[in-house]
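This follows on from our talk about sequence and fold. Please put the record directly below this note.
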Amino acid sequence: MMDTTTEPDLEIPAVSLVKETQERFGIGQHFARAYLRYWQVSREQSYAELSEILSAPDPYPMWFEFAMSSNGRGQGFASFLEPHLGDNRGRYLDVGCGFGGCLRSFADLGYAVSGVEIDRDRIALSKANALDGDLGDCVFEMNILEDEKAIEKLGTFDLITCMDVIEHVLHVPLALKKMSELLNPGGVLALEIPNKDSLGFVNSDGHFNLFGITQLDRATSIRYHERFFDFEYDVGYYHPSEYYISELAKHKLSAGYLPYPLQPPHPMRNNGMLALNLARGYAGYMGRKSWKLPLSVNGKLHAALARFGLKYMSDNAKRLFGAMKPEDFQRKYLTNFWMLLARKDG
């Protein structure tokens, strides 16, 4: 958790910056002020204008915009999911509620909302966002994997979402088991999961903007990451979408894909363009980053990329000759995020 006591001059963001951020991202004052305060302290720098933040080196602008767009993304997701939920507006839980955008949006749909989070900074930020929405005390510090009394403390739910979280979990089967236990019979679990084999994410992953890191094992990814960042690598494991469907079935949840308009697959005609971008990304990696890495990491990255390239070309040939369905190819290589919707039996 950040130490907000050592830099008092950074604690209070400029009023003009708060207003500019509110207007740009359509968020409330408490959330804007809390996040800007967090941002200044964590970056050890004060800011007068939003442009200073958005012009920082990658991946910092991406992180800032991801947080500040939380409400907008939550609204889009809630609108997309609503037709699949039926008329029941019962209890809703967001696992890894982050900045609270989904809490705000599903409360607007009539759900009684709750969120759990393990990061104390994000707990404070989602509470600030909830305060703007007058949601009451709905954000709780809890690790559902470790808390044996999670059901006793939280109750059970008609809808659970887990958005951009599951890839950070080190024990995915246990996480899916715990969420299934928190779900009422007939309830719905929605998972948004990044695809490590999408051409876009191989070129530049969605967490650190690092070329090729999604193709590496976790130990090598940690070594790659530490050469560019001074904070801990926090991604767990990437699994194919079929893995999640299989694990959910063990807990009597029937899962399927939903076409997610907020993270649409690239049209098939963009296949060649994305492959070309990947080749350019490789050239950029060789010119700007490869020399910063140990030889062993470079070697493993090149080997992983060779395996990926051979598999991609093989599957592309299968697609062209009708041995692989276009939708399966698109889901595997042209989709950055999968949206899985699972309904519990009963």
Remarks:
- The CA atoms of residues 45 and 223 lie 28 Å apart.
- The first helix runs from residue 15 to 25.
- The longest strand covers residues 183-194.
